[in-house]
Amino acid sequence: MLRLYNTLSKKIDLVRPIEPGVVKMYTCGPTVYRDAHIGNLRSYLMADWIRRTLELSGLNVVHIKNITDVGHMRQEVLEQGGDKVIAAAIAEGKTPAQIAQFYTDRFLTDEQKLNITAAQEFPKATDHVPEMLEITERLVQRGLAYEVGGNVYFEVGKFSDYGKLSGNIAEGDLLEAVRVEADPLKRDPRDFTLWKAAEAGRELKWPSVWGEGFPGWHIECSAMSIKYLGTRFDIHTGGVDNIFPHHEGEIAQSEGYTGESVVNIWTHGQHLLADGVKMAKSMGNSFILSDIEAQGIHPLAFRYLCLTAQYDRRLNFTFTSLKAAQRALLRLRNMVWQWGILAHGSTSDAEVVAGWQGRFVSLIEDNLDLPGALALTWELAHSDVNPADKLEILAYFDKVLGLDLDSVVEDYTVPSNVADDISHRSKHRGRKDYARADSIRESLSDSGFVVQDGGVATFVRPKTEWEMRQERWHTYSSEVEVPSLLEESDSVDLTVGIVACNYLGDVQRCVLSALNWLGDRDAEVVVVDNGSNDGTDEWLEQASEDNDRLRVVHVDHPLGEGSAKRILLKQCLGRTVVMLDTSVEVTGDIFGPIEQALEDDTIGVMGPFGLRTTDLHHFHDGEGESGDMDAMQAYCFAFRRARLSDVGLPRQTFRFYRNLDLDFSFQFKAQGYRIVADHNLPVGQHEHRVWSELGEAERDELSRKNYGRFLERWGDRADLLTCNREQN
Ligand code: AMP
Ligand code: ZN
Questions:
Q1: 281, 37 in Cβ contact below 8 A?
Q2: Which atom of ligand 1 is nearest to the CA of 270?
Q3: Cα 33 to the chain's mean position, in Å?
Q4: Where are the alpha helices (DSSP H) in 520-560?
Q5: How far apart, in whole angstroms, are the C-alpha atoms of residue 670 and residue 286?
Q6: CA of 62 to the centre of ligand 1 (A)
Q7: Which ligand has the nearest atom to the CA of 240?
Q8: Which pLDDT belongs to residue 83?
């Protein structure tokens, strides 16, 4: 029988079905005004593994997963315009319902791709407003809730068990936790909203005895869980961030309504992290499933990755670990494939099979020890169990693991002409005509097949998308993987360095204009392809094959600007480095004047667009001015590569580009170098997409954070400013 950590009892509890043979489980589902990120998906994987474990033991699981399409999805969010897709939807005249349907469909597709067994019902909040109102009315009748000005609040002080799930009991903690946006209508700041009066112009609203309004967030889960699973059910799941206030509120509402305990076991999944912090859209560190697929990585590799950490442990996501998961999954699939071919004729040993199955079950039933189960899977793979039994045992494991291993046979089937080629090849090999055998193998490889000679047979299968992708070009996943050439001596006079991420037209314009005006200089162009997925990567690769002076470093997903620039500078080999932004077009010889200016050793940075400040707070672009500046804008930023040894590389904490140029400029200033602008350098500026495609709120936030980083380091260095220094 499955045992799970119960957030409510704070111990590991046995799942004892309330109704014999049936387990009723509710999972807090997605909020559908945006894509679920892979952190959200980790929570749904946890629920899926719980369900599969219960089903393996013969239980029937009734699984409900709600769709939050109101309440949590406030009009404010829609109107902020922070989210480009919502802004676009509104601009196109789409309704909130259409937006919700769009993201619901995408969510269901993501679940399918991850092999998550579909819940029996995906009830929508907007379809259950009457049920929410019924609970709310009963809570008011019972004196647990009160109405003020069309709003209804749950009165936390009236529910003595409040805090039993999260331990948030002390008023101070609660205040801290809800970060009260001082609602003067509440009797107690801890009270939470059950129903909110509709503001003027609101589209999503319903009639109620208190006037038109819309439900609070927690009430939907009380209403839908009770409606579909009854007033007592077995398991409720969500991510740890749901514990408070969402689930604490749900307990107060549901138990206030029924008068008794509703959920037996509350199970919460720990977060998926990225860069060491919770993955969240608002942190700018979230990825969605299509970001993974865009790299030729199978969605199930993410499922595999999640198997490597117990659900109640945090898991730090990196593309490096995801690729390792992809390789491991491919290895496992290859083994299954070969066992399938070798299995014919081997006999089965029921006792061996039962032994392995028993070990597997005792692991997964022990608070879902999936890392242990995965280790057991590899132990099996490397054991001397015969192939037929391995297949049978693994098929049993996979009922829970859900890695879709039984699709291998079909996925690895090859067309008959390929099979014919293999038998010809075997004949050549039999005659020791290895030259012919190898040429068949090569031509099969070119047309997308892997040929592998085993002891007793030759295996052939189609290459996976991942393998084909690996053959295209090398990609890096992080800055540390990229070798540094900084210690090497200059190999050319000049490097033009560019970081590119999508917007192919811009990249072409920038790269080609630079190549054009380089003329016959001794120079190279180095481009960091920072995770492009719109064909820019392919164009760059092709262009670098056609042009010896162009070198491309591919990164598999967009790294922060600081990291991308560090990679770029680690890879440059020119005596002079001219960094260009892809919004810039070289329209004349900028290189001669730059080289000439940098002959003056007092000048650290040279470029057309300088910035000046007198207080470190307001930076003015040197409006057509030339001469000494306090910083150089990143659009065109030139310096001697040798300077990097005392100035250092740009800081990787700057994930967004803005103000990184100030920071990097000050690194030069701090070493005593001047920053000099020549406004007449012939460069054209085009639309800067990274800026123009961001919502206003988002770019303000990102800029502000970066400016904070800059000030933290340089805020007390007014001595570096040009205005405070003697002119030389
Ligand atoms: P939401 O769509 O924001 O309501 O979140 C859906 C589910 O994902 C909830 O159960 C959250 O607790 C969970 N969740 C949110 N962020 C993460 C994360 N970084 N890692 C794991 N689960 C998360
Ligand atoms: Zn919920």
A1: yes
A2: 21
A3: 17
A4: 536-546
A5: 35
A6: 22
A7: 1
A8: 54
Q: Which residues in the chain land under pLDDT 50?
A: 74-82, 172-180, 728
Q: Residues 540, 541, 547, 549: is their CA dihedral positive or negative?
A: positive
Phi, psi of 562 (to 5 degrees): -60, -45
Per-residue confidence (pLDDT) for residue 655, from 0 to 100 = 87
What is the Å distance from ligand 1's center to 40 Cα? Answer: 4
- Looking at all shown ligands, the one closest to residue 243's CA atom is 1
Query: What separation in angstroms does the CA of 162 have from each of 154, 159, 256?
Result: 11, 6, 10
Q: Please choose from 27, 40, 237, 240 the residue to mutate so as to test ligand 1's pocket, defined by most ligand atoms within 8 A of CB.
A: 40
Report helix, strand or coil for 160: coil
**What residue type is assigned to position 107 of the chain?**
F
Helices (H) and strands (E) in the chain, counts: 26, 29
Residue count of the chain = 728
| Shortest-distance ligand to the CA of residue 36 | 1
Q: Rounded to whole angstroms, how far apart are CA atoms 641 and 579? A: 11
Which residues does ligand 1 sit against, CB inside 6 Å? 28, 30-31, 39-40, 42-43, 68, 238-239, 241-242, 269, 271-272, 278-280
Ligand nearest to the CA of residue 311, numbered in listed order: 1
**Residue nearest (by alpha carbon) to ligand 1 atom 12:** 239
Q: Rounded to an integer, what distance in angstroms lies between the CA atom of residue 253 and that of residue 2? A: 28
* Substitution site in 241, 271, 286, 305 for ligand 1 pocket (most atoms within 8 Å of beta carbon): 241
Q: Write the burial class of residue 728 (CB in 10 Å: 0-12 exposed, 13-18 middle, 19+ buried).
A: exposed
Rounded to the nearest angstrom, the distance between the alpha carbon of 246 and the centre of ligand 2 is: 6
Looking at ligand 1, which atom is closest to the CA of residue 239?
12
Going from the Cα of 43 to the center of ligand 1, the distance in angstroms, rounded, reads: 6
pLDDT (0 to 100) of residue 172: 46
Q: How far apart, in whole angstroms, are the C-alpha atoms of residue 659 and residue 562?
A: 11
Q: Are strands 674-677 and 627-629 parallel, antiparallel or unpaired?
A: antiparallel
The rounded mean pLDDT for the chain is: 92
- Please give the distance, rounded to the nearest whole angstrom, from the Cα atom of residue 3 to the centre of ligand 2: 22
> Looking at this protein, which amino acid is placed at residue 124?
K
Query: In degrees to the nearest 10, what's the CA dihedral of 550, 553, 556, 558?
Result: -90
Tell me, what's the pLDDT at 180?
A: 43
Q: Specify the residue for token string 């390929």.
A: 418
**For residue 431, what are the contacts with CB-CB under 8 A and spacing of at least 6?**
none
Alpha-carbon radius of gyration of the chain: 31
Which pLDDT value is given to residue 93?
81
Q: Which residues pair with 121 in a beta bridge?
A: 64
Q: What is the pLDDT of residue 179?
A: 44
Distance 539 CA to ligand 2 centre (A): 46
Give the ranges where 547-620 is alpha helix by DSSP (H): 561-571, 591-598
Which residue, 146, 133, 221, is CA-closest to 183?
Answer: 146
Token pair for 383: 């054991």
Distance of CA 225 from the midpoint of ligand 2 (Å): 9
Is the Cβ–Cβ distance between 673 and 610 less than 8 Å?
Answer: no
